[in-house]
Amino acid sequence: MNDSIQKMLAHASVRDFSDEKLSEEQVESLLLASQSGSTSHHVQAFSIIDVTDPELRQAFGEISHCGPYVEGAAKFYVFVADLYRMSTVLKAKGKDDSGLANNEALTVAMVDTAIAAQNMALASESMDLGICYIGGIRNDIAKSAELLKLPKYTVPLFGLCIGIPASRNGKKPRLPLTNQVSENSYDQAILTNVTGFDEEMRAYYASRGSNQKASDWSQQMADYMDHELRPDFTDFLKAQGFKLA
Amino acid sequence: MNDSIQKMLAHASVRDFSDEKLSEEQVESLLLASQSGSTSHHVQAFSIIDVTDPELRQAFGEISHCGPYVEGAAKFYVFVADLYRMSTVLKAKGKDDSGLANNEALTVAMVDTAIAAQNMALASESMDLGICYIGGIRNDIAKSAELLKLPKYTVPLFGLCIGIPASRNGKKPRLPLTNQVSENSYDQAILTNVTGFDEEMRAYYASRGSNQKASDWSQQMADYMDHELRPDFTDFLKAQGFKLA
């Protein structure tokens, strides 16, 4: 395995950063890397907001319940799934922009955005920086959008903290390959049999350095997803102009 | 800039593969890399279908209009945004799974899936393999799901071709950073002023090695997105159990 892959396999989110800033060259590398991933039909349907204002950082820290690292990271970028730029292009060409409202276009934008962010994440880790995705900006997504003055056809999908790690967590186990990879069809019996992984996670939770607990993956997931998460997300998408159904 | 970032910046999709297979070690590296990215709350909401059956490859080639490379790539993986595994976990714990039907859960799954795929894409390119995303499996997404026997709460998001390049395309320009990165708020005037990029793309289209044309980015985008793409996607999502509105 080459160095790049070894670094990918060693990934663990970093939630504790030093005060050190990134160099201008590092920042430029990260931004260029984020743009270099695949993009559906060249639409490049994302934008990045570089949040430098301390009051904005604090507000995003509160929304996400991730204050210490959202405020303390050298960089906090918000990745925006962005079809607004496309709507201005369509209008400038005298075309109707209503096709941008459908679920397919929204999905294209979300996938483009996630690909861009993961390029930036891996570029960061290739320079031994630490990263943490902040999906918690969707805890109050309307507020997140308002803070950044986001227009129609945009979705603040997640934040990304980047910085020099002050401390690092251990790597968290992943599902066995047999639970995530199937040949030619979705083999329900194998892909959903997580008994082995539950045992592995039970041992992991009992023995890790901090936040030890008696639980397993199924229990954690059942406690987390047994209700509708962020139910206001749908109304937000509609308010942004998306025609969901 | 380190080697990893230089390779990211050199990315261009590959659509022409040699007949060579990947080694078992390469395949294992790719799959492990795909699992090692960030995942929202550890949900790991994706599955990967390794499409090895030639008839299935042919069917996906037809659906996507990408036959030569979908059939010819050493690997063709379909990445599935997958909340079905989660529904089995919830049911096993005696919990209600209806919260999985909302747009937030679907978004979590799509982002997890794209992060996993981009890890695999970059792991491939770190080994000098070529990749191409195949969003075109959504041209007939109900058929794509049927071919793979996908259950409720799953979405075949895209395919990923991987193999040894027989030929490589040149890198396609990306928007200037000023069009994609803004500080503290969404600056509409700057983020949507694509005049300079249109000039760059006009020169690129006129001078590239193959498929030369007199066009620019705005024109290409306007011609592509002036109508609702894949309008059956919404009905498919509903049929899979998602409550969109």
From TrEMBL, chains A, B:
Residue stretches making up the Nitroreductase domain: 12-163
InterPro entries: Flavin_OxRdtase_Frp, Nitroreductase, Nitroreductase-like
Record carries keyword Repressor: no
GO molecular function: oxidoreductase activity
Organism domain of life: Bacteria
Keyword entries, A-Z: Flavoprotein, FMN, NADP, Oxidoreductase
SUPFAM superfamilies: FMN-dependent nitroreductase-like
Statement: the UniProt record of this protein carries the keyword Glycoprotein: no
PANTHER family, per the entry: NADPH-DEPENDENT OXIDOREDUCTASE, OXYGEN-INSENSITIVE NADPH NITROREDUCTASE
Family membership: Belongs to the flavin oxidoreductase frp family.
Name of protein: Nitroreductase
Organism from which the protein derives: Lactococcus termiticola
Encoding gene (name): nfnB_4
